[in-house]
Design brief:
This protein is α+β, with helices and mostly antiparallel strands and 157 residues long. The protein has 5 helices and 3 strands.
Length: 157
């Protein structure tokens, strides 16, 4: 983190002089110590973050793919005049343990067209689906599986 903060300082200054480097080192140490003392930063959390980074990147790619597929599905539903749309509310139990995991699952569902997370209470997710067939993939979804895999990295360290 120290090195990344220092590099950001240099990049934002746009030039490298002795004064910029010294002031950057002092400011970087101050931010580093503040993060350690008040924000819960540690070398362990940084190591876990970098171990999770490839999984997080693949999660974002999965999210983009699912958004595109859901867009096509919703367009097909709206353009097909023969079928009627049957909205519904669906409640299921999610497995993510961490707060960010629960938020990521709820947000991923909401970002996917045709579904909106209405409520998250504990492990219970209530989702509004544009049509009943959209609720089929909610429980034990690919999003949930990826989030659980991300949570698992560093959980036992």
């Amino acid at each position: 983190m120290f090195l990344m903060l220092f590099l950001l300082w240099i990049i934002f200054n746009g030039r490298l002089t002795v004064e910029v480097a010294l002031l950057g080192a002092v400011m970087t140490v101050a931010v580093f110590l503040f993060s350690y003392k008040f924000l819960g930063y540690s070398l362990r959390t940084e190591r876990i973050f970098f171990r999770r980074l490839p999984l997080i990147f693949s999660y974002y790619l999965l999210l983009l793919k699912e958004i595109a597929l859901a867009n096509l599905e919703v367009m097909k539903m709206l353009l097909n005049k023969e079928e009627s749309i049957r909205p519904c509310l669906y409640t299921f139990t999610g497995k993510p343990r961490s707060l960010w995991g629960k938020a990521a699952l709820a947000d991923s569902i909401t970002l996917t067209p045709g579904t909106i997370t209405v409520s998250v209470e504990g492990d219970q997710y209530t989702v509004h689906c544009l049509d009943k067939h959209l609720m089929d993939g909610l429980e034990n979804s690919v999003f949930e599986q990826r989030i659980l895999a991300i949570e698992e990295v560093g959980f036992h360290d």
